[in-house]
Amino acid sequence: SMLARLLSNKRTIPYGACLTQLFFFHQLAGVDCFLLTAMAYDRFLAICQPLTYSTRMSQTVQRILVAVSWALAFTNALTHTIAIATLNFCGPNVINHFYCDLPQLFQLSCSSTQLNELLLFGLGILMAGAPVILIVTSYIHVAAAVLRIR
To answer: Which residue ranges does the record assign to the G-protein coupled receptors family 1 profile domain (predicted)?
Structure first.
C-alpha cells in the first residue's frame, strides 16, 4: 500500500494504516535492539566464559531471550499505538513525511500530547539506552579478555 501510494504520488494514508505502520515500526525496531543485545551477551559468554558457555547459553536460554525481546518490543509498540489512538485530530491531516511517526502525529493533534511525549521519552530511553549500555559493557569485557591473551 505504501509503495503504491509513493508511485502514484498520493500523499495520504488512512488513519488505520498509519497506526498499523506505527505499531510495526516500533515492534520491529524494538525487537532489533533487544536481539542485538542478546547477541552481544552470547559473544560475551563465548569469549569471556568459554568453559560454561554451553550450559549458560542453552537452547532454552536462547528461546527465552528471543521471547523476552519480542514481548518487550510488543509492549512498547502497543503502548505507543494505544496512546496515539487516544488523541483527537482536527484540522489539517497532512504529514510532511513519507511515513507516520510519533512526532509528526503530535503536531497534528488538537489535544494534549504531554503524556505521549513523556512516554516517547521514557520508553525511548529504556528501549534504546538499556541495550546500548549492555552492548557496550559486553564489548568492553570482550576487548579486555582479548587484550589479556597477549
So the answer is: 1-150
| Percent residues over pLDDT 70 in the chain | 91
Residue 130: pLDDT band (50, 70, 90) is very high
Average pLDDT over residues 89-102: 73
Contact predicate 111/88, CB 8 Å? yes
Label residue 111 left, alpha or beta by phi (over 0 means left) and psi (-120 to 50 means alpha).
Answer: beta
